[in-house]
Automatic annotation (TrEMBL):
Gene behind the chain: thiL
Protein name, as recorded: Thiamine-monophosphate kinase
Top-level taxonomic group: Bacteria
Organism: Gaetbulibacter jejuensis
Residues reported in the UniProt entry to bind Mg(2+) 1: 57-58, 135
GO molecular function terms attached to this record: kinase activity
Stretches assigned to the PurM-like N-terminal domain: 40-153
Length: 350
């Protein structure tokens, strides 16, 4: 489906492991003062003075987490950085460094890895993180990418999943369900392409949701926004698996219950129209679709005046005593229990 514009195919063996590492990493520049030594020694050296350090890692496996028939390698590189930075921002921290480890089979030419690394480099530049190392090895099957991200945060600013209190407001950034509906469109086009490779899909009416799937953005801006507004959330988590499962995580870790209002869940018009086209319920998609990489947080009611006018933040419910349970209040004002499905449930992969 995605045309390979780069016709040159240099086999990996031509460069060898060290030549390849050098080739892929030579353009990376170190920007943070905390990076004492980046790529090039046995280990990187970092110095964070009195800050606390957050560290997180995520692995992406071909045909489990991504499908190269519609995921351009450049986007894959970008996204693999985003999924990690999102976890750093969910701690209310500032991302500073990443390492990137890849396992590749020799079906990938050097040019393919250049594409992957151009996406990684773009992400690192846009989000201001130093690439300080990684590992390169061979794989007999698909492509595997593992990114580790490091961030820094003042001790008093760290936000855990565990701090939500009854009466706190439940707040979400951006809008939900876009990445999942983008995936549905891409999967459908893939099937069409299999039958008729000459078919040029017209995806104009899906640009937002496809971008949400192929080029998600981590919410670095929210960490800054919260600081500017002088709001410290009582708890926070990033939405990688879908709203319902993240709400359950927050409630379990905080020992509280929740009431979530269906009519408050933010949805983009393209999500609503595509849900209608696919005959899927948009609330189900917001609750169980994954990969939106928005932030879900709880804030004290006292902070409500500071956030209420902000278009990036939607109040979608409030925290209750644990004994009240976790409920979705529907548009028809019925109360139904929130259950974890994660996004696999929608794909029937469980
Ligand atoms: P070692 O044998 O000590 O593991 P390597 O030869 O694997 O060293 O790596 C040499 C340097 O290149 C190290 O700084 C390592 O972190 C970095 N590096 C290796 N692979 C990658 C990669 N895929 N992306 C970024 N840096 C890498
Ligand atoms: Mg190594």
């Amino acid at each position: 489906m995605i045309e390979d514009k780069n016709q040159q195919r240099t086999p990996l063996s031509e460069l060898g492991e060290f030549g390849l590492i050098d080739h892929l990493t030579k353009h990376f520049e170190v920007k943070h003062k905390s990076t004492i030594k980046g790529i090039g020694d046995d280990a990187a050296v970092l110095d964070f003075k009195s800050k606390q350090i957050v560290l997180t890692t995520d692995m992406l496996v071909e045909n489990v987490h991504f499908d190269l028939s519609y995921m351009p390698l450049k986007h894959l590189g970008y996204k693999s950085v985003m999924v990690n930075l999102s976890d750093v921002y969910a701690m209310n921290a500032n991302a500073t460094q990443i390492t990137v480890s890849i396992a590749v089979s020799n079906r990938f030419p050097v040019e393919a890895l250049e594409e992957l690394y151009s996406g990684i480099q773009t992400a690192a530049a846009v989000y201001g993180v130093d690439v300080i190392g990684g590992d390169t090895t061979s794989s007999t099957t698909g492509l595997i990418i593992s990114v580790t991200a490091v961030g820094e945060v003042a001790t008093d600013d760290v936000v855990y999943r565990s701090g939500a209190k009854p009466n706190d407001l439940l707040v979400v950034t951006g809008d939900l369900g876009g990445a999942y509906m983008g995936l549905q469109v891409l999967e459908r086009e893939k099937e069409v392409f299999k039958v008729n490779p000459q078919n040029q899909p017209d995806l104009d009416m899906y640009t937002y949701i496809i971008e949400r799937q192929l080029k998600p953005e981590a919410r670095k801006d929210i960490v800054k926004l919260l600081k500017d507004l002088e709001v410290k959330p009582t708890s926070m988590i990033d939405i990688s698996d879908g709203l319902s499962s993240e709400i359950i995580h927050l409630c379990k870790h905080s020992d509280v219950g929740v009431e979530l209002y269906e009519n408050k869940i933010p949805l983009d018009p393209q999500v609503i129209s595509t849900c209608e086209e696919f005959d899927i319920d948009s609330t189900t998609v917001a609750l169980n679709g994954g990969e939106d990489y928005e932030l879900l947080m709880t804030i004290s009611q006292d902070d409500y005046p500071k956030i209420k006018a902000n278009p990036n933040l939607s109040v979608i419910g409030f925290i209750t005593e644990k004994s009240s349970g976790m409920h979705l209040v529907t548009r028809a004002e019925a109360k139904i229990p929130i259950v974890a499905k994660g996004w696999n449930a929608l794909n029937n992969q469980e």
